[in-house]
Amino acid sequence: MLVYAGIDEAGYGPLLGPLCVACSAWTIEGASDPLAPPDLWKSLSRAVCRSARDRRGRIAINDSKKLKGAGASGGHPMRSIERGVLAALCHGAETTPITTDNDLFARVGCADLAAHAPWYVGSTALPWACEAAQIQIACAMLRRAALDGQIMGHGVACHTVDADGINAAAQRGMVKTSLPWSILIDHVNSLRTRWPTTPIRVAADRQSGRMNYRDDLMRAFPSERLTVIKEDARESLYRLDRSDAPLVISFTVAGETGHLPIALASMAAKYVRELWMARLNRWFLERVSNLAPTAGYVKDGRRFVGCVRGALAASGVDESRLIRTI
After folding, report:
1. In this structure, is residue 14 part of a structural domain?
2. pTM (2 decimals)?
3. Residue 118: count of CB within 10 angstroms of its CB
4. Which residues contact 316 (CB under 8 A, 6 or more apart)?
5. How far apart are CA 21 and CA 8, in angstroms?
6. What is the mean pLDDT of the chain?
7. Is residue 289 part of a domain?
């Protein structure tokens, strides 16, 4: 058996809202070489594809940037992303329904941001962008394809850090690029704890465009033998060996185009972030007249902050809980 996982993030660049780093994990019976994971788009082709406009109605799994719609045609912009994420979370042995964003956050292990800031209090009914029947059909479709392919999805884990956590890390001297890296290593350690004697392949996108990860991996895993398999313009590939089982980790340019687990992690991170941002916008829109919502990115985030400063002051919560410093 092989564990095949992908890691990706959403919310690295914004001024407002959380950074979400997700990990999608799958096991494949009959596979064992972490250097040659199967193409899950091919193995699950009865149920999944890359396009949101599939004639067969399959589940789109791709980079979230390619699947989030503009909403111009009347459809919800998160429709394809929600369908893929909820199908991935509900197609396996887990049968507990996801009916609110609180259920989703609990399923993916997301931090409770509502404990840190009032604008995250509340909940959103799910499905948010689809009909419940569409999600049920997608779950059943993916379940059948996974069983036929001797593949099992193990859901998604999503670590979430809001502005206060990011600012606290900056005060400790952590640079911006270090935070998603530290969360990536946490995900890797969680995979190895869950599957201590199984070969693991972890696929990730390039981290800030870097090519060399050898020193960082040696610091993260000081007692293990590290082999650099390759470091080139397209991909950096490493093998970590310990007595139990090998782990191969890759950092690939546009990795979500070649690894379904990265693409699903990209979708899950985006979905979790969008749901937190929906709460944030809802809270401020209730308190500020004629306020346009924000996605939190820097230029529009500054516009939004300028409009909500009065409501923020009235809440008695310090700006550092809302606005990132890095």
Report:
1. yes
2. 0.96
3. 14
4. none
5. 6
6. 94
7. yes
